[in-house]
Structures are given as structure tokens and as C-alpha cells.
Amino acid sequence: MKVTSLTDLERERGRAGAAAGEGAGSGRSVAVGTFDGVHLGHREVIAGADTVLTFDPHPVSVVAPQHTPKLLTTPQRKAELIASLGVDELVVIPFDTAFASRSAASFVDDVLVGALGAARVSIGENFRFGHRAQGDPALLAGDERFQTIVHPLLEIGGEVVSSSHIRGLLLAGEVAEANTLLGAPFEMSGVVAHGDERGRELGFPTANLVPDEAYACPGHGVYACLANELPAAVSIGVRPTFETGRGELIEAYVLDFDGDLYGSELTLRFLDRLRGERRFDSADALVEQMRADVQRTREVAAGA
User: Fold this and answer.
1) Is residue 203 scored above 80 in pLDDT?
2) Could you tell me which residues come within 8 angstroms of residue 50 by beta carbon, excluding any fewer than 6 positions away?
3) CB atoms near residue 2 (< 10 Å)
4) What's the CA gap between 146 and 128, in Å, rounded?
5) 185-302: which CATH number, 3.30.420.280, 3.60.110.10, 2.40.30.30, 1.20.58.760?
6) Sheet (strand 51-56) strand order
7) In sequence order, what are the beta bridge partners of 193?
8) pLDDT tens, residue by residue, 248-304
9) Residue 284: phi, psi to the nearest 5?
10) Does residue 159 have a pLDDT over 60?
11) pLDDT computed for residue 239 by the predictor
């Protein structure tokens, strides 16, 4: 899949002189949205599109930064998920205050028609665009230059599938339910940092990650994961059994692995929650529970 900036497309259009008033790639089928998480609802909007138009950073971080959500996907992960759906090109709008000030008409005329040459536009029913969100599905549907497909919000089990709902599930530790709505396991990545080697002393050396505040993180507890495709028991929390003075940590014990991960990037794919965070009366009691966590992780990973 080709990844292109809208700025580059508009520059190409300018060089070409916007021949016949059409944009590069005339006749595109374009799915438009923020698509954080690329969940099942997003996938219905994207289905059948050859081009996806999205925004980076998240528009809320520009127009109402105090309400910026913790993101479900990095730009790289979003691109991977969209590519897996058979899309030919991902066009990214560098969203800033200048773009936020564009009118809804400008978005349609200059972006959808001018730069993209859209013949078909696919959106969710709650999609809004243009300065102060003045553009809506009705405005797009009334434009005869392209066909507009408006997808109703997807409901599963009586709940609307939304990025905000999935963030709530993750915070509550409900990663299996979140994965169902995402259509793929939730992932997070980071560079392995040095810790205080408490896990090594207990016989369970861990790879330590510091959560990125910009991204969603499952709630405190112990999880069965895949770490760079290897089974791993992962603890998220502040380690209540020991006084460490550290903040929140992600500690991954990678099963049957003997090597140095310091400084390398580790991608955690969350499969299921094993238990909540607990304080144990002794290190021996903790080690006994960790052995049980490791065994359960093997079973979960084997069935993944």
C-alpha cells in the first residue's frame, strides 16, 4: 500500500495544472475518517475503497486539545491495519490549525474532488468535517460529482462500536472484548528499558516498557500476550508487593527466551487478561502466582 501526504497530492495537482478540473487518481473510491483503532465499524466504511483519507494528528488534539483522546493505534499500526484490508493508497492529511479553518466546501472541492478526484465517498454517519464541523453526510450526499455511501454506526451486543468505547474496555482490562470490536488484537510497542531487575531476582526476568502517555494502555493487571510473536506474561501496574518508587510500568516475561532485549523494540499483542493487580504477603507467594500466570499464558497463546 502506498502512503501519501495530502500536501504532496495537492502539490502534484498544482504541477499538473488540475487538468480538466480533476485531481490525481480520478475515479477513486475514497473512505474518509480518523479511523483510530481501525475497528469493525471503520472496516465497514473502508470495505470496497481503493483509497483511505485520514488525519494525523487526531483532529481533536488541534481543535480541542484538552479533550485529546489516548490513541489506540500509532500512525504506523494504523497503516498496517488499513493495508491488511486491501487498500491501494493511504492519504494522510497533516491536520493543523490551518486545515481546521478550511470550510466544508473547501474540503469537498479542493480535497475530495480536486486532489483525489473521488467518484465514490464512503463515510460513517457521525462524520463531520470543515471549519467548526459544519460539513455532514447530508452535504456530501447532495453533491452530484460523486456517489456518497453513508454507513450507520455498527452495533454489537447492543453497544455501538466506537474508539471511545474500546478505550474504556482497555482501561477496564477487558482486552478480549476490545479485541473482538477491533477485529484484531490490541497492540502496543516500546523500547525495552533497564529496570531494577526485581523479576530476575525472582527467576522471571522481564523486559520493561514505559507507557507512552499519548496512547491507550490496558488497566492494571496481568495479561497473556505475544511479545514479538513469542508468548509472554505481562504485568501492568506499580508492583504493589514491593516499594519501588517507580510509576506505572509494563513488565513482560517472555517465555522460553534467553537473550538481551535492552534497547530493542518490543511489540506486545494482548490476548486476554489473567487477573488483576494484587499485593502478596511474601515474595514466595508472588513467585507461586507467577508460575501459575506463566502456565495460563502458555494455554492462552497456544489457542490464539
Assistant:
1) no
2) 28, 29, 87, 88, 89
3) 10
4) 18
5) 2.40.30.30
6) 2-5, 89-94, 51-56, 28-32, 118-124, 147-151
7) 208
8) 889 999 999 988 898 999 999 999 999 998 888 888 888 999 999 999 999 999 998
9) -65, -40
10) yes
11) 63
- 69 preceded by a cis bond (ω within 30 of 0): no
Domain 2-156 sits in CATH 3.40.50.620: yes
pLDDT attached to residue 296 = 97
Indicate the helix (H) or strand (E) that contains 117.
none
Query: In sequence order, what are the residues at sequence separation of 6 or more whose Cβ sits closer than 8 angstroms to the Cβ of residue 202?
Result: 283, 286, 287, 290
* Residues of the chain above pLDDT 70, percent: 90
Task: Specify whether the CB–CB gap between 75 and 61 falls below 8 A.
Answer: no
| Averaged confidence pLDDT in the chain | 91
Q: For the chain, how far is it from start to end, CA to CA, in angstroms?
A: 27
Local structure of 243: helix, strand or coil: coil
**How far apart are the C-alpha atoms of 284 and 301, rounded to whole Å?**
26
Q: Considering the entire predicted model, what is its pTM?
A: 0.90
Alpha-carbon distance of 182 to 192, in angstroms, equals: 26
Q: What is the pLDDT of residue 283?
A: 84
Q: Which part of the chain has CATH 2.40.30.30?
A: 185-302
Q: What is the DSSP letter of 193?
A: B
d(C-alpha 3, C-alpha 101), whole Å: 24
Count Cα neighbours of 281 within 13 Å in the Cβ-side half-sphere.
Answer: 1
Grid coordinates given for 146: 460523486
